[in-house]
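Quick log. Single chain, no ligands specified.
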Amino acid sequence: MKFVTEFRDRELVEREAKRIHQVVTRPWRIMEVCGGQTHALLRYGLVSLLPEQVKLIHGPGCPVCVTPIEVLDCAVALAEQQGAILCSFGDMLKIPASNGNLFQCRARGGDVRVVDSPLEALSLAQQNPHREVVFLAVGFETTAPAHALAVLQARELGLSNFSLLVSHYLVPPALRLILSNPKAQVDGFLAAGHVCTVMGAEEYRPIVEEFQVPIVVTGFEPVDLMQGIRMVVEQLEAGRAELENQYVRSVATQGNPTARAAIAQVFEPIKQNWRGLGSYDESGLGLRADFAHFDARKKFNLNLVPAAANSCLGGDIMMGIKKPWDCEKFGNECSPDHPLGAPMVSAEGACAAYFKYEMTEKPT
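-> predicted structure:
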């Protein structure tokens, strides 16, 4: 295994780890929801500092991983059949779809472009008034404000050739799904700090109260993660189930009012299909009726027919039921160069993290 052993605040991290060793008396399973947290935990070898009673499991907080195949099929169709300029973040281009990925679509002549923000796609629409420009809007609550603002600006500019192919997801319904699955067996959560920076922490309180499970909003630095784990373990050992905020330097109780207002103005909760996890009411975001002319699904009359699932274990991995090494294809038939599923491609995917940090075999 290869880890980064020197990092800022290492002494404080080790002190937090020591406190966990001192307080823990029984096994606990803690899920870090965000894939970015998963990569940080593995990159810095933080798992090796924990007592064996504390098991970290990886959640569904990877938007690339949960975007279903049919959305990518529609993106390919827009570029190849509709002649649109399809704009996307780079990590979506290698995700397998029914007819290859977006890289292969581009090789076949589709106009697929990598952008760094939806505003870059908006500029392309201004520069190409006779072409349709579609932005593949993927993400959780973190990216939704920027996508909402792009739509509002397109309306202000009077652009009729710009639209979004939306694949947005909400974290709280995912936690409810996990807690309702007896196979998952999660004792506590590290909630994603960037999502809570936008939405605030309070929307997790009903989950804490209903399921009597600790949730600690946590940042992404090594000391953030170790403090978050310690806070969850202390609650569990004391028999408490509370909502706590480790990431106080970024997360306010009610989040970012301006960002939340933009999301509420442009989007509304909808039934959403999660790759590998199923379809659930009000688990995603879709454009409101007032903005239907910016909805690529309606504009191009796209039919999102659920695609047949492959043999990827991504769903079980994102539910915390299995680890990447439980898949017989992991690191062999499935690698970042030849991925069979989204978790091996995404910069936040658990399989990509395990492969990158050489965690290829189950410890004995």
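The first strand starts at residue 28 and ends at 34.
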